[in-house]
Amino acid sequence: RARYESGDHVAVYPANDSSLVNQIGEILGTDLDTIMSLNNLDEESNKKHPFPCPTSYRTALTFYLDITNPPRTNVLYELAQYATDSGEQERLRKMASSAPEGKALYLSWVVEARRNILAILQDMPSLRPPIDHLCELLPRLQARYYSIASSSKVHPNSIHICAVAVEYETKTGRLNKGVATNWLRSKVPKKNGTNSLVPMYVRKSQFRLPFKPSTPVIMIGPGTGIAPFIGFIQERAWLKQQGKEVGDTVLYYGCRHEHEDYLYREELARFQQEGVLSQLNVAFSRDQAEKVYVQHLLKKNKENIWKLVNEGNAHIYVCGDARNMARDVQNTFYEIVAEFGSMSQPQAVDYVKKLMTKGRYSLDVWS
Ligand SMILES: Cc1cc2nc3c(=O)[nH]c(=O)nc-3n(C[C@H](O)[C@H](O)[C@H](O)COP(=O)(O)OP(=O)(O)OC[C@H]3O[C@@H](n4cnc5c(N)ncnc54)[C@H](O)[C@@H]3O)c2cc1C
Question: Which residues are in the FAD-binding FR-type domain (predicted)?
């Protein structure tokens, strides 16, 4: 049984793509199955090893080290000593320096070109650092968080997530893939019944449904921002089944095209039919000439929004991967509150701030 509440996050420990790991082994001429141990020389440190040791280079590069983010300047500085070509060595030193031209070069050649450690080794043929030092320099591979897209009342034995697989072409023509999303994509259980293991833990959050089910909720979540709201709606449906009085459940969702990326389309239609979802407002941003986003729909329904907030004591939730969206939505609330509450702009800002401190306006936003 998985212990979680709707609105919690799950942290997933991913693994790096084996082809990237193999290519690093090949380019450095390393037998990846060699066993090694990396020991912390700082005696004050309470950690004897930066990651579980002894281990193989393959395990370290697959599970413990970040090999996909563009390396930071301190890593380039340390690597420079191993470039036998003076031009490459100079370029690495320059990028690691605080001089404006060095910073600009680092920004364009590493950050904007999204060069990971393998791309740097490929594009600097004289740079062949010892693998031990590379393992020491690379940062730890981080867990990725996901907003749980299920209710434990309905799915006590499973945790659902909703994520977009990250994949993009870099300026150098390479195809970069997001570590966790592509790894998760390969974890679909096999037809022969073999399970896939995904190491994870649940992180409690403050993003919670109101204590009283009769309190209305306004949920605003474009794209994968819909994730926690699927859990919320499932939970409200379950509460209704238990005979509880459930308040208005209002969703503002957004995607690009109705026929392309409308997530949970069938589920949402069913929830609406069953009367669990009182309002389903969907903004299709690219289905017409002018872009339509969730905040435009909020404005369109401003009178109803104000009624739910002012008379119904509704709780407002905003979730998604765009910081701009959260800001635009908040500005829209200021406008609605100012207009219908007959308040000045500062008073409206204060009103929304109070909603936040009372736990009636909650954010779950990442970028
Ligand atoms: C609290 C919290 C909740 C979250 N909930 C969700 C959720 O419910 N669903 C969800 O999908 N994600 C969610 N995320 C984001 C998630 O944790 C991961 O960041 C995301 O899935 C990408 O992980 P990845 O390992 O696949 O990609 P990574 O390997 O981490 O690569 C992603 C990085 O690639 C770069 N990148 C991506 N696209 C491009 C591009 N076109 N051009 C250049 N660079 C690019 C960016 O720097 C980006 O940070 C959440 C994050 C937090 C902090």
Answer: 1-210
